[in-house]
């Protein structure tokens, strides 16, 4: 069965405090590669085709709502009485509906959408009322453990604080991510009681409750156990950023991009890079950026939002580009800032050239044609246009348009005062 045939609702748990972040901000609005953790989770929910996304908020809810707006619906959990209690707060969104509900955490932001699609598919094809995403960790401390029977079926999830010494030895853990049958979950949550070491309503109890009712439950082990890592402090924030960085860089290398040093190359989500392009070290490419084939980028290049770079372009060292289009064969080799700029084909931008694109109020455009030669240390005061086949003399501050096939020169003539130091 295809996912499309099933109604999928996603519920995101985001009421927790996150005190270990040591921050005035909600943990869920901390960022990885410029994007809030909770926003990443919402995008994940969108990618799996959720018909509705419900976010359970509590602590600093206004910060989360400011980021997500009306992209999701909100349930409010006033007191943090456990993950089962969090689901109870969202009951009105689930009651009377059919299909599957996927549970995600707002602070577990780097799961692959394919993993969730596989989880949903397994729950549909195996006809399970609950399917738990699990992982195997050498050190499972802190996680709920997956207790299976002799036949290998999941019997229950036991929290660390409630576990027997034998159960603590289990290395298969609960990720906290599940796919439930909506109606079965709504029924089961009313049977959860806080009779446990933490006095909390555990969502995990639903597995045992469903098993007792004879409703089939199951588990799916995630192959790459870094996907289900969560963020509790700034150290984990860095760790997840590294995991994501490696994943993105590996994807580009598999697609034919050379990355000389993945450890110092920061390519944010959604960047497109063509085959045979080489990325030198210490390069950051962020935002919505498309780079063509056979380009050379870096070292120490900074390519920001809205850039379009065609094939066979060189963007060299200490070059920053923002909302800039560079056509094929053009060289932007060193110490250059181009912002809000369009550059044609086979043009050379000299060392030290900058666009003066911001007048303090507005951002203005600079247009540079094909086959141009911009000398070193040129200031292009926008709005300004340089026609095709034109040259700009080094050291010029260009404030007026330069027509085609022309030389633009805007600098003081040099005066040599002979014998000046002999006087
Ligand atoms: C939970 C699971 C545990 C699993 C672990 C994975 C339960 C009882 N235990 O542990 O089996 O291994 O996740 O990380 O479910 N939250 C709320 N409201 C609450 C409580 C939590 O919104 O009342 C949110 C938190 O903000 C967080 C998520 O739910 O995003 C998980 O809560 P957390 O306390 O980190 O997980 P545990 O209960 O320790
Ligand atoms: Mg807890």
What does this structure look like?
The protein is an alpha/beta fold. It has two domains: 226 residues, Spore Coat Polysaccharide Biosynthesis Protein SpsA, Chain A; 175 residues, Hexapeptide repeat proteins (UDP N-Acetylglucosamine Acyltransferase, domain 1), CATH 2.160.10. Helix content is 20%, strand content 30%. The chain is built from nine helices and 31 strands. Strands 12, 13, 14, 15, 16, 17, 18, 19, 20, 21, 22, 25 and 28 form a 13-stranded parallel beta sheet that branches. Strand 4, helix 2 and strand 5 form a beta-alpha-beta unit. The chain is elongated. The protein starts with 7 loop residues before the first strand and ends in a 15-residue tail after the last strand. The relative contact order is 0.08. The structure holds uridine-diphosphate-N-acetylglucosamine (UD1) and magnesium ion (MG). Uridine-diphosphate-N-acetylglucosamine (UD1) binds next to strand 1, helix 3 and strand 10.
The overall number of domains is: 2
Ions, cofactors and other ligands present here are: uridine-diphosphate-N-acetylglucosamine, magnesium ion
What is the end-to-end distance? Answer: 95 Å
Structural class: alpha/beta
The level of helicity is: 10-25%
Overall pLDDT = 97
The strand count comes to: 31
